[in-house]
């Protein structure tokens, strides 16, 4: 029996294969082996051999060793969705490589935020002939460390069968990335159940259908014709099984586009409202206008994702009947969620299972049922009560938690009606132009930059949580299109100019050609902007304006730096405090803050202290229920009534090295007294830690009173950062989460701009820098106006940074000031946006 010694292809931490986040690998469907969480973006050869296959996207390759063992090396989970971005293969198929030879270079920091996980796998793909004899796991490993041995256990099972029985079929492959590891494993494992031979032919090459490596080696892509031939007894039944698998996508989303024209009846059935709407008909161009949320261009076909409008029955048909109905519906949803074990949605499904089984929700629903309500009414009421408590902050992760409650409410109500819930946007074909009444943040789970072509919403506002997430992903987004959007059918071809907020339905060929030309030019312009984004941001006259990034968790800093961020202007520290039964310790917080500081490479890191409140409860932070949580215990008010929580966080921030990198930012400041209290705490903790160096302490300007009193606040602050999302909704008395008014929540309203100017004037009297970290900072058209008002730092979504830098480079400070003056004097936000567009 020959034994092959394999050496570590990565530098990182070795893990059991069962620890892989990808259930296909963890379940051993591809083969036995191990997982490694890499710390360096290099893949090296674990043994000598031939490169048997190299995936076109560069995320995986297979080495056939000199002994015949086929070793599959797969970098990360769902990295095939990156389309090759960040991968640089250094070898080619058929090349002989030596042990330790550098195979693939990959940009690890840039990839981590874009994929489900960078945990990578090394498995034996031809398990019929070779088995794993030993592995080394649960410890750090370096390149070349002995990590696994493979022993030959027999020859590969013969492909041919002594039978004249055979069956075959041909069909196009309708999955976006072809037969990469996961779908290949699905196919091969089904084929192995057949005793005879299974051959797959594509692109003039034929492969053993029972071999993952051979299938991957076909190099298939979307639309390739697969010819599948099955030989031996039971061939017909096996053909049926394989046909069903291929038609279902082999575990990947089907990427077949929608039909050009929608069925009118189906459209009417999906559209909310009492009466069916009349869809726009092909042949006549129709222009709709909404509100720009994320600028950008797109052209393609519409994919409708409307949520059902439900009139839930209030009264039940009997307590025992309704309880049984609810229990059965919950069980049905739990069963379905338990089946979602693949890819990034697995984590969402796990969270949803916890909500469905939450005893407090069940108890609340059953109490309503006991009072005579229906199961639908009771469950929906219980879930939405919790969702209302969580909603309200322009923070993607928290908003997703509120949306998770609404999603689970809908899933169980759908089950009570015999329907299934819809999947997320990440499951749609690449390039989809999504139209919905309003996108829930949780529907963006697993979404990566570039996957969705555009998001169009009938309702919603530009500072809604979904719009914030879209901005972070760089997805062109239009909101508040109004009821006419209901008339856009599935599959309708459209041209989207999200900067102008326009959608052209059924454009002419000339309009389509012009749009595609602009999109190509836009892509070139963005590439040029990204190429220049690492330079300092300066106006045309040399005036310095810093452009920072808003971050939410470890792993995002490197991506932001790659986009040109000069630091982090807002770290939402809430990510550390969620999904826990107790508050994170000082050391836990320090480890996370330090990791982000290290990603930023010495650039400034401004950490906002915990911003939760009565509307966003933590299990270990009991706060009273409030009639209007937006006007209650939020932001620093919570820290001041729970000083031990605030002091722990302050100490962790004070310990971040090197000193001077980290700064402290206080949310929802309303008075000078609050800032004095916090500064006293900071100084006390600094002295206790023995830190000699001072630390900068700033206030967020989110309350109109703080803007008006900025001159006094500036006496006790080192800097200001304006949260335009909250400042706008408080100034205009409009809840950005309320569809009825959200479209009017625009930070470029002259009244809001006047408050920003007051804050800048007050800060200027004491030489303080003013930043903007709200949604307006990610709007390139708003940037010159903000600079003209006195802002000298913008903290934006990373994807927006290159364009913001380029936009500002075209203005002098005098031009910015003149534009800002005209904006403050304008009649409304629409006029301000017109001014901004004319000056661009």
UniProtKB/TrEMBL annotation:
Q: Where are the transmembrane segments?
A: none
Give GO BP annotations, semicolon-separated: phosphoenolpyruvate-dependent sugar phosphotransferase system
Please provide one cellular component term from the Gene Ontology annotations of this protein.
cytoplasm
Cellular location(s):
Cytoplasm
Q: Which CDD domains match?
A: PTS-HPr_like (cd00367)
- What are the alphabetically sorted keywords of the record? Cytoplasm, Kinase, Magnesium, Metal-binding, Phosphotransferase system, Sugar transport, Transferase, Transport
Kindly list the GO molecular function terms attached to this UniProt entry. Answer: kinase activity; metal ion binding; phosphoenolpyruvate-protein phosphotransferase activity
Q: Where is the PTS EIIA type-1 domain?
A: 22-126
EC identifiers of the protein: 2.7.3.9
Please give the name of this protein: phosphoenolpyruvate--protein phosphotransferase
This chain's source organism reads: uncultured Pleomorphomonas sp
Q: Which gene encodes it?
A: fruB(HI
